[in-house]
Amino acid sequence: MSTARSERREAPVRLNWRIRLRRDRSLLLMTVPAVVLLLVFNYAPLFGLATAFQDYDPLIGVWHSQWVGFDQFQQLFGDPLFWESLKNTLYLSFVQLVLFFPVPIALALLLNSVLSERMRNFIQSVLYLPHFFSWVLALTIFQQMLGGAGVLNHFLRQHDTGTWDIMTNPHTFALLITSQAVWKEAGWGIIVFLAALSAINTELYEAAAADGAGRFRRMWHITLPGLRGVIVLMLVLRLGNALSVGFEQFLIQRAAVGHDAADVLDTFSFYYGIATGNYSYGAAAGLFKSVVSLLLIWGANRMAHAFGEDGLYRK
Description:
- By secondary structure, the protein is mainly α.
- The protein has helices at residues 2-10, 17-23, 25-43, 61-64, 71-77, 80-99, 102-112, 117-128, 135-146, 151-158, 173-198, 202-210, 215-240, 248-257, 259-262, 265-274, 279-306, and strands at residues 54-55, 66-67.
- It is built from 17 helices and two strands.
- Helix 5 (71-77) packs across helix 17 and helix 6 (80-99) packs across helix 11 (173-198).
- The protein is globular.
């Protein structure tokens, strides 16, 4: 009887929504600005997707433009430039996934092994800094270092050796834009992994060290399993953005390497849609990219659940 009574006492009390609302009103008020921004800049523009099914004329607006059904998509799927842009997008996304995605994880592991807190904070600040540079400034730095008149080729000319055509070579463009992304964003990408590392119980490392486990074995059996959930989550999000490889970065360098190498879906929508005044055509390309991205993130999340991870949400 006493056990049953104690279990009844320990049962959690279910609060109605009015009490929870009054209890959490401060937190809810803090989320209002973020919700407003999300509605204004992410959900309100969805109304413009209707133009993908119209022969849109900005002078008469969405309500009076002629509806053409799937004609824009038929034209899109018959355009060889669209398929070339899609191929470039998938290829560049794959290269960045293979070469860029592991870098923040490795940097977080290396930074976590630095014992001096002052040195760790200094390295973090240096790694974070390029994230706040615009792509114009970042690409200017790369041009000054690797361009035809840059520091590298100037050094090679002084030593009577052949120069390297890096910034205008379409064959190495994938490696170039990946290195630019690593330099600019890898430091910012370690924030989530450092937060996950800080949540790992330090007693596990002490117990493993007492059992004779070295640094590598502690990392393999404790650190990486502790990061697995976050790695899967970031991988799912990365796959969801696989078709968004970057607009400004490619727009600036398109003239240097040519459209055959630098055209992706975002630049295709701009150059062959907005720039030509064919807004419906650009909207159709953008809608296609969004639908495929949604399917990718759904499939990646299902795969994460199949391997026993939470993914975007706990099943």
